[in-house]
Amino acid sequence: MAPEYLAAQQDPIMTNLKPPLREIEYRLFDPSPSLIARWIALDPRLAADTRRELETDPRACFLRDVQLQTCREPHDPGVEMPRHRPLRLESDPPLPSRIADLIRRHLVTRDHYLGIRGAVAGQMRLLSLPWRGAGGPLELDLGAPLAVLLWRETATPGVWSGWLLASETDYATDADILLEREDEPYDPLVAMVQLWNPVQITPSSAHPVIGQLAVSRLETLANAYADRQRVGSAPLPPRPGQLMERLVSNGQLLLCGTPLGGSEDPRRRYQELYLAAAAMLNASCRHAVASHACEPEQPPATPSLTDGLAATWDRLSCGLRDLAHQLGQPLLHLDPITAMGTEPRTAGVIRAQENQRRGYRIPGILAIEALPMASPAVLKLHLSHLAHQPLTLRLLLEEDELESHRLTTDQPHLTLFIEPQPGLLLEVQVNEGPSHRWSLHP
Questions:
Q1: pLDDT of 119-154, one tens digit each?
Q2: What is the 3-state secondary structure of 137-154?
Q3: Are 270 and 193 a contacting pair, CB within 8 Å?
């Protein structure tokens, strides 16, 4: 719907949006089943303050009683219970088509992104509480997972900025951008991007990928975010529950809701709920970064590798050497001045650190560097695209593709996490040329 058409609407403001706000509040902030279970089991690791809050919260007590009742399944000891019940019986009614489609989309998304570990811009990640930082667990709890769209990595390595994702499109404002068919596959748990609700997270392999936006779509979202920071909302009447098309400064159209209204607009309370949820995400991120900063500082050194990872790095180095030879290029050690993801250093610092990096570059093609990792079983690689032509990288296990990434001038950087195992292969393809493949297992 074009903004001009929307501005002419005289419908009253809708207040019966779905799902109801109380349902959203329960879903976000009810104590999670795992926290209730720890409370029931008198887990000694549960903080005393958390226990007191649960004991004085009527909703938490209700959920505890429900969980206790569910555990006491009445059963006649004289009747033998079946060990397994089929998922579907012939007499079962068919699933409603809408539910069946949601299940199908979820399974398609899960299979499509299975095995992807490294964080890249445009990924949608699903996060669950409680989180752990480098210094241990953080006592935060949410009743349901939250989804985040990754925008870009911050100056702090491993910390990404982005926006919360949500599913309640009835509550969309002009700063909520709806996902569309071109963005598929993505999990039906998400349907829109909350540009008004930025967050920072530390994504890990424990946070599954549930979608991936194209570079052009992410750029348009970034433009829309910048437009909002610069000029605010359009001078249009609020119409909760209705959608419109929004013209972005780069000339693209985005589907969104209408501007936020006054105190009577139910979307204000909706935003308060999700802002509180985002605050918990941001607190988790700060905890992880602070815990890491409090670790004893190690003297500068070349990233050390265990025997197994060192052998994998040697395999990778041999493969890069062969690739450079086939492309008619030299294989060079990384120049500290052009450290990937950092600003140029001063000359004195360069001389002090020139032996600290483990990496190579093929001029005009690719740069690759091994980065320190807390895990002795994972090799962390930072890759940088140096070519004018696209570069495709694939991780394979035998002939099964685990990950596939395309580096371009628009998306030139990638972080890969490699766990060496038999049959693990890396494949590199420059533009549409021949593929170069080699084993990463010693």
A1: 899 999 998 755 444 444 445 667 788 999 999 888
A2: ECCCCCCCCEEEEEEEEC
A3: no
Class of domain 3-14+106-292: mainly beta
Q: From CA 273, how far away is CA 268, in angstroms rounded? A: 9
Look at the alpha carbons of 337, 338, 339, 342 in this order and tell me if their dihedral is positive or negative.
positive
Q: By three-state DSSP, how is residue 105 classified?
A: helix
Rounded to 5 degrees, φ, ψ at 94 are -65, 150
| Tens digit of each residue's pLDDT (9 = 90 or more) over 283-292 | 777 766 665 5
């009614």: which residue's tokens? 93
Closest CA to 362 of 320, 411, 400: 320
Band of pLDDT at residue 190, cut at 50, 70 and 90: very high
Q: Does residue 200 contact residue 154 with C-beta atoms inside 8 Å?
A: yes
Contact 21, 29 (CB under 8 A): no
Which of 166, 164, 212 lies closest to 405 in space, CA to CA? 212
Residue 345 contacts residue 339 (beta carbons within 8 Å): yes
How far apart (Å, rounded) are the C-alpha atoms in residues 40 and 245? 50
Provide the angle, in degrees to the nearest 10, between the axes of the packed helices 33-40 and 58-71: 80
Residues ≥6 apart with Cβ < 8 Å to 328: none
Question: Which runs of E-coded beta strand occur in 184-323?
Answer: 192-201, 209-212, 243-247, 253-257
Six-digit token string for 109: 């998304």
Contacts by 317-324, CB closer than 8 A, 24 or more apart: 317/360, 318/438, 319/426, 319/436, 319/438, 320/360, 320/362, 320/366, 320/368, 322/436, 322/438, 323/362, 323/365, 323/428, 323/436, 324/362, 324/365
* 205: its two tokens: 């392999």
**Burial status of residue 91 (CB atoms within 10 A of its CB: 0-12, 13-18, 19 or more):** exposed
What is the DSSP code (8-state) at residue 32? P
* Contact predicate 366/383, CB 8 Å: yes
**d(C-alpha 55, C-alpha 261), whole Å:** 38
Structure tokens at 125: 């990640």
Is the pTM for the entire model greater than 0.85? Answer: no
**DSSP bridge partners of 405:** 393
Domain boundaries, the chain: 3-14+106-292, 31-72, 307-439
